[in-house]
Amino acid sequence: MSHAPTSTQAASYLLRGVRPLGGERADVLLRDGVIARIEPQLPEAEVPQDAVVVDGADRVALPGLVDLHTHLREPGREDTETIESGTRAAAVGGFTAVHAMANTTPVADTAGVVEQVWRIGRDAGWVDVHPVGAVSVGLAGEQLAELGAMAQSAARVRVFSDDGKCVWDPVLMRRALEYVKAFDGVIAQHAQEPRLTEGAQMNEGIVSAELGLAGWPAVAEEAIIARDVLLAEHVGSRLHVCHLSTAGSVEIIRWAKGRGIDVTAEVTPHHLVLTDEEARGYDPTFKVNPPLRTQADVDAVREGLADGTIDIVATDHAPHAREDKDCEWAAAAFGMTGLETALSVVQATMVDTGRLTWADVARVMSANPARIGRIDTGELAQGRPFAVGEPANVVLVDPAARRVVDGRAQETASANTPFAGRELPGRVVATFLRGRPTVLDGAPVRDVATVGGAR
Amino acid sequence: MKHLLSAADLTRAEAVHVLDTAAEMAATQSREIKKLPTLRGRTVVNLFFEDSTRTRISFETAAKRLSADVINFSAKGSSVSKGESLKDTALTLQAMGADAVVVRHQASGAPHLLARAGWLDAAVVNAGDGTHQHPTQALLDAFTLRRHLAGDPALGATSGVGADLDGLHVAIVGDVLHSRVARSNVALLTTLGAHVTLVAPPTLVPVGVETWPCEVSYDLDATLADGKPDAVMMLRVQRERMSSAGGGFFPSPLEYSRAYGLDARRLAVLPEHTIVMHPGPMNRGLEISAEAADSPRAVIVEQVANGVAVRMAVLYLLLTGQHDPQSARVPTTTTTHRTEEAHA
To answer: Does the interface ipTM go beyond 0.95?
Structure first.
């Protein structure tokens, strides 16, 4: 599975017989960091001498995926993930850019911390790392962090979130929404009414009643979303709703978009497939915030993603130490990993079921998240169309492959995947970041750092 | 059945078998020498993460009457996020060679984790987990109900043997939301054929209760007058539940007592044969008045005695593998040579 350094340093790659966006077979030439040619059959004479040929074998070619919601844990919890390990996992999952959430230790609430994360990410070289800035100092929900300083830093932060905690104070939320208009920022809200979820452990409903685990009502999410879309409308700002999980939330977003409110919404892969029934074994692998909901909610978020009410899929990749999951449910941490399974789950739930085409997948996992994060233009643009002249951020997927998930075999430093032991469709075969392979034959290209000069 | 984790795991036949075994155990407890040799050489650990003197003593008595060695392991005061992890505790008990672990824990599901995580080989008995289950309480309640309502208590412990609770109506009154006793009893009593009505203020009924195999009433007087229950089981209500910090579930203890307390007035409307139950400890004057608690209808003290017999049965069945209802009868003799010797 290893590759000679010379191959990774090649200036060009010919992806032969791939299916761009799942369409007709084509030869795709990546050269000098851009997509140089897309043709049904590139004449042998026009293939550059130094080009490495990758046999496409009907694999689907997509623009590199962009995750708007990743927990890389560095600085602070390098025992569970580092920027290096997390971004390597991202590359193996088909991503070429991730947004690193702010709930690190220290919190990413200053220009200093976001620049540090950005630089370490750049040096790791697996994907573009775009730090998310905290909305409030220390995620405490009291005082605005220096959003302007973070926006103007080298990290050019545009997404702000207290994720993990809700910006609960309506005045603080209003101020944040207003303030980021100055630099075209967006507030990504973790919608969780705190009083309604004190001590909450899982979705409140039939299963929680039986299991005796404190309930987390859907209304605790929906009430905040309803408030926030009205606030966004009032101040004419841009709102992004993180990981919505209930049928009611989908309805509220649909209503808000119908009114012309500038709101976008995300769903996680796990909320597309898992339900609160998973809690019955009291296995804290399935403990996550927001909690797994009911089948009706799963159906609603799939429908919302299919009809465009939900704009994106984002992983909410949340690595945790083994001791924080190897314990009783109430003592366990919230969260599950997702970078290396996201595309497979989307294929299983949305593509293989006919709800989305591969072109739609490119929209919800690449173009839309890049646009929301305002990383879709400029020198390091992501989420661009699959077209000649665009940056060669490309992922090759073998949709016919099937694999059984093994948390310990993943690139992420933590093993808390909810899909352990399950068979999922699809496999990322190769990932290219601006023409440079970060993944080949499904394995990370380890000398990636030595060829980081592609940027 | 290697473990007893939830009353909902028991089939009707299994539950009746446990009750019948308990009846045989109870019959031995009126003898001068109460100790049976059955579990000699076996080790039962009482692992209590939460205060419960009553339940612990009941299990301890049960295990000792079966001649098991008993270790009390109190991890009281260690919250779910502090102290030694459940895993390390389990590995310690495994290393000490526990045959059965009786666990009381404040976290719902902790006994499931002990039973399934692979840390322990021992049989796990749930002695109450969070707001989830307390299966031996339900079994002792079912045992008490059967003796009084399906048999004739005057005829002794084995009266009612073989019977279930078909056709009986049981009202369970109080803080259902936080009650593992209510959850366990709804499951077990309905499995045994009884009809259950839960009575509570709406704030103390869980969202999702609509799928439970029982009725829910907010009106105790109507349930007593119209439902004519054969038994009324009062649940303990914690006074702190009324404070806003405790959740603000009801306005005041007085209002709770007026609407949901079992007092002399309500006692008087009950059918003659109706029994009054309480898992203890009682809040006299809150959910139950002294008149009700001390009335001839009350079987509360008897529930405690039956608890020992039921827990003897559960430990015996789990540790000897005799949980198949078709299996041989319990060897309950105390007159073997070895036992005489042991007690000499």
So the answer is: no
